[in-house]
Amino acid sequence: MNAFGTIYRLTTFGESHGPAIGGVIDGVPAGLAIDPAEVQKQLARRRPGQSVLTTARNEADQVEFLSGMLDGVTLGTPIGFIIRNTDHRSADYNALAAVYRPNHADFTYDAKYGIREVRGGGRASARATASLVVGGAIAMQALAKTGISISAEVVSIGGITGSIAEMENVIARAKAAGDSVGGCVQCVVRGVPAGLGEPVGSKLQAMLAQAMMSINAVKGFEYGDGFASADMTGSEAADEFTTTSDGTIRTVSNHSGGIQGGISNGEDIIFRVAFKPVPTIAKTLSTVDKNGNKIELAAHGRHDPCVVFRALPIVESMAAMVIFDAYLMNRSARF
Questions:
Q1: Taking the mean position of all CA atoms in its chain, how far away is CA 312?
Q2: 3-state SS of 225-272?
Q3: Which of 53-62, 146-155, 252-261, 269-278 has the weakest average pLDDT?
Q4: Is the pLDDT of residue 199 over 60?
Q5: What does the pLDDT look like over 218-231, one tens digit per residue?
Q6: DSSP per residue over 145-194, as a string?
Q7: How confident is the model at residue 55 (pLDDT cuts 50, 70, 90)?
Q8: Beta 183-190 vs 69-70: how paired, if at all?
């Protein structure tokens, strides 16, 4: 299960400290002009080593397209790409080879496979999300031609809302203490026509939820009023319909977050994603090794004290792949 999507489908591969990560994209219609520079721009927003508040790992994240395009135009065949790993320090993980880090995938990977890639967390590393950004960047370029745009922003860090500077101060304090913090991202998809999404098995919010919950460190998803809806009455939560001066049917409010009955209603699609604190921290934590022996662990190496700001292009990318997939699926809804 290393693939996302039904028609627009991305299959990814690679580990954090392997030669490269990459993917294969199926379902891209022929004749779509792709700007590689725009793909690279999205990767640059996610890449590590950009400030003292991110991991010191310094990867160029230069994407290499191997197939599926001719002179920047899609051929309708699979688009293959790789991103080479150039700045891994595998020795940093020698001390973790037999240790289970709390809240990490170390134990569960061992439980499932009986073997795991210790270096950098292997497949469980956030390094793998660079491939998702490539798939999303191509989907965003296709969606732009239909008038659909996607943007995400950080709305809180460590429970604190405020300016970016204030949220960065929260991250800096956590880093200085050898700790980490999580946060919340809000994403808005504009220009989506009514009718995208399927009524039962592939409700649009379910597709978005699956995509967002597949991102490393994500612990929660809600759309529209989300959990606040549980404390509202039916009249308070109602999105009443009206007709605009040009005859378009719209809703007066948007408690539904742009989705009703699993299908887009033409309003902005609004959702929020919660990210947990990074589990690998310098503070001492109690854990066990593979033999069940209790140990005290203070991790060393290059790790983000907070992933939320770097996650913005990942959230946008996953949303773009879902919406473009739903758009392509919807073209078969009527004869």
A1: 7
A2: CHHHHHHCCHHHHCCCEEECCCCCEEECCCCCCCEECCEECCCCEEEE
A3: 53-62
A4: yes
A5: 999 999 999 999 99
A6: TTT-EEEEEEEEETTB-S-HHHHHHHHHHHHHTT----EEEEEEEESPPT
A7: low
A8: unpaired
Confidence of residue 60 (pLDDT cuts 50, 70, 90): confident
Q: Could you identify the residue written with the tokens 């009249």?
A: 235
Give, to the nearest 10 degrees, the angle between helix 129-144 and helix 36-46. 140
What the block records as the tokens of 230 is 């549980």
33, β-bridge pairs: 73
CA 287 to each of CA 39, 99, 123, 147: distance values in angstroms, whole numbers, following the listed order: 41, 8, 22, 51
Q: Which residue has the tokens 């069940």?
A: 292
Q: What is the mean pLDDT of residues 290-294?
A: 91
Q: Which two tokens stand for residue 335?
A: 């004869």
Helices and strands (H, E) in the chain, number of each type: 7, 17
* Residue of 213, 214, 153 whose CA lies nearest to 188: 153
Backbone angles phi, psi at 197, to 5 degrees: 110, 160
Reported residue count of the chain is 335
Long-range Cβ contact pairs of 142-146 (< 8 A, separation 24 or more): 142/28, 142/29, 142/32, 142/324, 143/320, 143/323, 143/324, 143/327, 145/32, 146/191, 146/327
Entry pTM: 0.92
Mean predicted confidence (pLDDT) in 120-136: 89
